[in-house]
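Can anyone check this?
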Amino acid sequence: MTSAADRIRASAERARRPVAAQPQPEEEQEPVVAAPAARVHEDKPRKAAVRAVPVIAPRQKDIRKNVDLSPDQNDRLGDWQRAAARELGVARVTAQDVLVALVEKLLADPDLSEQIKKDLHNTRF
């Protein structure tokens, strides 16, 4: 049976190993060649060495944003959520649902976007 320390050491060793770079499809790849110690005369210039760049997958997980509300804003939002839930015939409408819908509306409606920018300018500056 291995100890926790042995498992940690093995994990650290795996993490230290270099990752083999995968060539990209349909890209012309030329191997990286070490330069000789002393060069004599070259007839034609050499092509630049191609280095594999790791491909980072796009983020798939949602990104969390936080909002601070005053106690009064929180109470009024809660009242609105409960009223909306009754009107929609559902058990509840979450603040998450409301904020996602508001962000979608803000991003899709240029007039609303301008109005929000004016409100922000008036309250902050």
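Reply from J.R.: I decoded it. Residues 68 and 107 are 21 Å apart (CA to CA).
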